[in-house]
Known about the structure:
Blueprint: H1 2-18, E1 33-43, H2 46-55, E2 56-57, E3 60-61, E4 75-76, E5 79-80, H3 83-90, H4 94-97, E6 100-108, E7 120-121, E8 124-126, H5 134-146, E9 155-160, E10 164-167, E11 174-185, E12 200-207, E13 218-224, H6 233-243, E14 245-253, E15 259-261, H7 262-268, E16 286-288, H8 291-300, E17 304-307, H9 308-321, H10 330-342, H11 347-351, H12 359-363, H13 365-369, E18 373-374, H14 377-385, H15 388-400, H16 404-408, H17 411-435, H18 458-469, H19 473-479, E19 492-494, E20 505-508, H20 529-532, H21 535-550, H22 564-572, E21 577-580, H23 616-624, E22 630-633, E23 644-646, H24 657-665, H25 711-716, E24 734-743, E25 771-781, E26 787-789, E27 792-796, E28 807-811, E29 814-816, E30 821-829, E31 835-837, E32 842-844, E33 850-855, E34 861-867
Parallel strand pairs: 1-11, 21-22, 22-23
Antiparallel strand pairs: 1-6, 1-8, 2-3, 4-5, 6-7, 6-12, 9-11, 10-11, 12-15, 13-14, 14-17, 14-18, 15-16, 19-20, 24-25, 25-30, 26-29, 27-28, 27-33, 31-32, 33-34
Catalytic activity: Hydrolysis of terminal, non-reducing beta-D-glucosyl residues with release of beta-D-glucose
Domain Nudix hydrolase: 31-228
Keywords: Carbohydrate metabolism, Cellulose degradation, Glycosidase, Hydrolase, Polysaccharide degradation
Amino acid sequence: MTQSLLAHLQHGLVRIATISPRVLASPPAQPRRASVALILRIRPAAEDEVWLRSKWRNGEALEEDAHLFPSMMQQDANGTMSTEARLRHFFTLPWVQRGTPELLFIKRAVRMNDNWSSHVAFPGGRRDEEDENGLYTAMRETWEEVGIDLAEKDFLHVGHLEDREITSSLGKRLLMILSPHVFVQLSPFSPPPSLQPSEVATVLWVPLSRLFTPTPAWGTIHLDIARHTPRHSLLRRFLRLVVGRMTFRCILLPNAPTAMTLIDAAEVLPDVPVPAAPVDDDDDVTKLLTQAERQYVAEHTEPLQLWGLTLGMTLDFLAHMATYQMHQAPEEALTMRALRRVLSHTPSSWLLGSPQRSLLARKAPSIVEVFPRFSYPDINFWIWVFGWRYRAIQRKWEQSMGTEMERRAHWSGLALAAFYSCVRRALILTTLLRCLGLASLLSPTVLPTPTNAEGLWVHPVKRARHTVQSMSIEDMVTLVTGSGYGHGPCVGNIQAIPSIDFPGLCLQDGPASLRGVDYLTAFPPGITVVGTFSKELMRRRGTAMQRARKDHTAINWSFDDFDYANAQKVASYSDVAMVFVTSFSGEGYGSVPVVKPVDTAANIGDRNNLALWNGGEKLIKEVAAVNNNTIVVIHAEWIEHPNVTAVPWAHMPGSESGTAVENVLYGEYNPSGRLPYTNAKKRSDYPADVLYNADVPHPQSNFTEGLFVDYRHFDAQPTEPRFEFGFGLSYTHFHYAALDVECLGEYGPDWNHKWGHHAAPHGLPSWLFEDAVRVSFTVRNTGAKDRREVPQVYLGFPPHSGEPPKVLRAFDRVWIPRNHTVHIHHILSYYDLSVWNETHQQWRRSPGPYEIFVGASSRDIRLRHSFL
């Protein structure tokens, strides 16, 4: 197979070198041009690499070994060797015949507002005014982007493929003319690349056998065409509504790069640190990957997608490798059949009605491979209807092949123009039909509720109805009412109903996972070192002790909750005093030992206060009185004490609670947790209080606070909390900027008309959960440490909607290296923007302006933006 592939590669390169390509002149209205470099090499086989390296030193070979390296042979007896002669000599070398042909690709760096961001491409770029020609542009851009000097004698410029027109998404506007140039590396060893981080993320050599094969790994890419239009919200919504998505064919390539930038390598390789500071294009930030690292990246990342313009140029190059003689060698005939299988079901075949085995598909595969489909079937249908002009151009093209007319006309440009003309006509007609209401097949559907008893729900609904009909009123009440530990094995229970064979439910267990542990063998809630029988745990304890000795860390303790004198003694000669306190939310059984003083939290039954247990509040005050660096793990009234310098809020501790607190206090881990509730300064600040004494056996709560609970209540009242909802500290600082709110939905700023005069069904319509607004902003780590931030997005409803001042709608936990900026996007649906209207019985939009708040907590708002 390798010999056959090399034969076809030689055939294709000779064709490119001997056939003059078509050169397109730039129109006066659009003079911009660009060039790219298709670089091929032959990677020596493993058995050849050792002896080749022994004869190849510092890019030079001995005179007696020059015949092994074509880059050392520049002339024959009659003068300079022709490109064709050098190619034929190159493919006769033994190490070439046993080698593997590969093609160089790059993955573009991630850049904002760049249509080529993260794309798989060939090195190249736009032509500068001082560039002599397109060849010079390709060589200059390759040197700037990947550090490969194509002017060296190790590279041979074979020729270039036909110029290509780069147009806008719908082919209406010419952007530039592109010239693809083909190079062959004559030496067995490639120079190490040096990447420009602002342009290139990775470099990879792809075996040609993965492309010139009957079974390439085909995939699809879905493109939102509205993203590639001018920044006008109405135009974007219109295109997204009419066009939907475009689907392109792509070839999946293994992501096994030869070189990466240090930033990209740090994201996928476990042992690569992130660069300490922002890098310039002149800095050397390239990491050359070993074979093991390449395999690791390929196994832990998604395949790369070769599509669009780069796929078209790749297929045009492969078309030169195929032969069309009637009598071919067996392996050549096999390759021809394979190529026809690859191109037998091209997009032009199933979209524009082209013959599947047309000569055009073999001569110019990029023209038939890069055509997209659309997500709406009616658009595809009308493109096929209007495709008669494209099919006529294709027939004329095939009739002109082999004649002088083939070279005169720019057939590929005519075919592309005809295709996009079909697209524009189809879009216009589809828009008119939809305005007349003839596109009902594309209207959103309402999800059926289980009560419809259709499909898989038939048997469950029937069984549920039978069960309910056989239940008494008492059974129904029991099924939906919880009971305490006296009516079951657990702390909270749903009692059993024997009449319907319902065994009951256990809603809350005790700390040992079982309420009653008599005659049971269960692990205790607190695990000790001996209980684990783990030598590894003991070894890690010894390691921690050694570290404490090197850090000059000495730990003193006082475990008695009520021995305040000893606690003060220990704290007085310590640099840092950590006080651990707790308070359960449930019943106070055993909260105070009998031999100790009566605690203010002691009670039998439900709690009657918010105080800490076991004298915790007094213990904190006693310790803080003698140590000015007291750290308390939780909070209460002692927070006002000036000597309390930090409050790590540990919540429910687990087996690694001590390790977690240590890592945070020593700065090894950034405490990126956020409070999911508000801490008030006074008990009276909360919107509701505990009912301590009831005059009736079964008191009733009317929930008069409504929606104004927690932070919503504090925002609505002039009440300053101690720690607000979403609050949390960090060891670094973050800067928020560039807030952008973009309306995405197709129903405009008012979607109430979508309901009509009908109340909301049991199963809400699917359109209510479609994308309505995109919130975008940036967060930059301006501190000195790599840390995580939790940006929060709050929504403010119109003032007269009756809603709280703002409600949390989105958040994320984002890793941000120091001096780096991360772009964050959140999507809000129509449901997120709606308010329940009791009169209409619908989720509706409130009249008036909405407001987006972005910040680090419910009170720490950094950005805000109003929209209609």
